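Need residues for this backbone.
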């Protein structure tokens, strides 16, 4: 059976969907939801703080994980009351899953790429929330990965809105 995926174009949609799924774990791909590609340290830190400030709207949430295949890291991993916060740089998505194994279920992976974030969600048995905003100036690599993902999506996931 193919797991579900849901499409969201903004953070408030992501949080609403996670709440409706009673998510106890949320794994966020860093680029582009937290900070755009090739942006500086300050924007990364601000993006993490913004998301952590908003996740309070998700009742029962226990773990928030920020995961990126890049080497970029925040200045410090901030704390959030009642939520365990994890940041994984050079995460090796979707191949490496060990770091996620102890996270409580049910969970969601929020990301823009089926080939990394979506397959990670599938391997973990989590719901995939496809972050799909209309972005101008999308780098070539993510644009090509998104095109491949659109072709592969029906093979891996059941669309649920």
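Answer:
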């Amino acid at each position: 059976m193919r797991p579900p995926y849901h499409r969201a174009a903004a953070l408030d949609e992501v949080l609403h969907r996670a709440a409706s799924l009673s998510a106890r774990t949320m794994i966020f791909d860093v680029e582009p939801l937290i900070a755009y590609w090739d942006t500086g340290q300050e924007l990364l830190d601000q993006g993490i703080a913004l998301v952590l400030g908003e996740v309070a709207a998700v009742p029962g949430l226990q773990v928030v994980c920020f995961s990126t295949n890049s080497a970029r890291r925040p200045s410090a991993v901030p704390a959030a009351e009642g939520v365990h916060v994890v940041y994984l740089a050079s995460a090796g998505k979707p191949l490496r899953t060990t770091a996620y194994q102890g996270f409580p279920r049910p969970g969601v992976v929020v990301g823009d790429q089926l080939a990394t974030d979506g397959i990670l969600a599938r391997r973990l048995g989590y719901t995939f929330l496809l972050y799909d905003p209309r972005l101008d100036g999308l780098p070539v690599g993510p644009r090509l990965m998104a095109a491949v993902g659109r072709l592969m999506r029906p093979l891996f996931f059941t669309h649920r809105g």
